[in-house]
Amino acid sequence: MRKLASYLFVSLDGVVDTPNQYVRGESYADIPDDSVLQQDAVLLGRKTYEEWANFWPGSTIEPFATFINNTPKFVVSSTLREVGWQYSTLIARDFLGEVTKLKSQPGKTIGVHGSVSLTQSLLLAGLLDELCLVQCPAIAGSGRHLLDHGGPPVQLDLMSSRTTPSGLHLLVYSPRR
Hints:
Dihydrofolate Reductase, subunit A; eight-stranded mixed beta sheet; 5 helices
């Protein structure tokens, strides 16, 4: 069975949206490229898809531009009717069932990038295998938090951690079953 891993930036006060407001530009160079080598499919929510479909096809920010533009993307949305970005497929209904099917197919890791609401749903449904956080040495002050779900606590086990020269903490957690 394939692994499903979510990748998010998070501020010290737990904000996971709009990382461009609290991540210093030079810090991006410290993020290792090895995670994209482990992925052969990407799962995106509607908002992230719309933002990225407008940005990444013309981007020269490597190695991520080549990766995201040439990797199959599965877009979870109940409002989109079509997706035009190369190698994109729309998942319009029963996304938990469709993700379960994707995980059962042979292949590498399926990465969930950005897509806070989608990550929340997958985590609470027990489908997420890894939560990969890039903790930034900044306080955002306001914004969405990953676990604003109003349900029971979610227990995580730390699988690995490292700190980059610019002070980013790369944390990989596995949800307890």
